[in-house]
Design brief:
By secondary structure, the chain is an alpha/beta fold. It contains ten helices and five strands, in the order βαβαααααβαβααβα. Bound molecules: cytidine-5'-monophosphate.
Length: 208
């Protein structure tokens, strides 16, 4: 069976770092599915299209090239906000989930991270992780990242953003963020990335 590793969880829980380390360890391609929603948002913003028109948003989603996704280009706060709005549109999700499944099904396996990988995109994945951490811890990590890059930030504003994003992702009708019934939970509130990586390896290796 192809080794598909599904990683879900809220914003800033450490999924991305963990996904990249696991992909390198197992020699598998990695797809950060959040970037597909962000690329759709950026395409709408760049084209000056209305942000609440589902038909136009779905057309944009259908044209996303998975091989050209770049987090540096897509990291802006405004893009993240619009991404979480277009992510609530069912026909946008249908288009992006189809592309994500093709990615997962090509080759000997893949690592995908997002919000609905274990529940919707790859429900048959042999390894599923749900990575989470307290909202304060996640907001603190985001804050430290911005400050380390020489930027300035307000902790309370970041915490409110994290909580608003969680509420939107967990509260939407289509594919809400939640752990799959068979997911292995990893709470990184009190765990560094290396400890989380080791815990993920023990879980995955036991399933190979
Ligand atoms: O993870 P990231 O912040 O880049 O994701 C941007 C937005 O895309 C999230 O807030 C979420 O609403 C949406 N998303 C999603 N399903 C995924 C990945 C991301 O709905 N599998």
């Amino acid at each position: 069976m192809a080794l598909v590793i599904a990683i879900d969880g809220p914003a800033a829980a450490g999924k991305g770092t963990l996904a990249r380390k696991l992909a390198a360890h197992y020699g598998l391609p990695h797809l950060d599915t959040g970037l597909t929603y962000r690329a759709t948002a950026k395409a709408l913003l760049d084209a000056g299209k209305p942000l609440d028109d589902e038909t136009i948003a779905a057309e944009m989603a259908g044209a996303i090239d998975l091989s050209a996704l770049d987090r540096n280009v897509l990291s802006a706060h405004e893009i993240g906000e619009v991404a979480s709005k277009v992510a609530a549109m069912p026909s946008v999700r249908t288009a992006l989930v189809a592309a994500q499944r093709r990615f997962a099904e090509t080759g000997k396996g893949a690592v995908l991270d997002g919000r609905d990988i274990g529940t919707v995109v790859c429900p048959d994945a042999p390894a599923k992780l749900y990575v989470t951490a307290d909202a304060e811890v996640r907001a603190r990590r985001r804050y430290d990242e911005i400050v380390a890059r020489g930027g300035s930030a307000d902790f309370e504003t970041i915490l409110q953003d994290v909580e608003r994003r969680d509420a939107r992702d967990m509260g939407r009708a289509d594919s809400p963020l939640r752990p799959a019934a068979d997911a292995h939970l990893l709470d990184t509130s009190k765990m560094g990335i290396e400890a989380a990586f080791q815990a993920a390896l023990s879980y995955i290796d036991a399933r190979l």
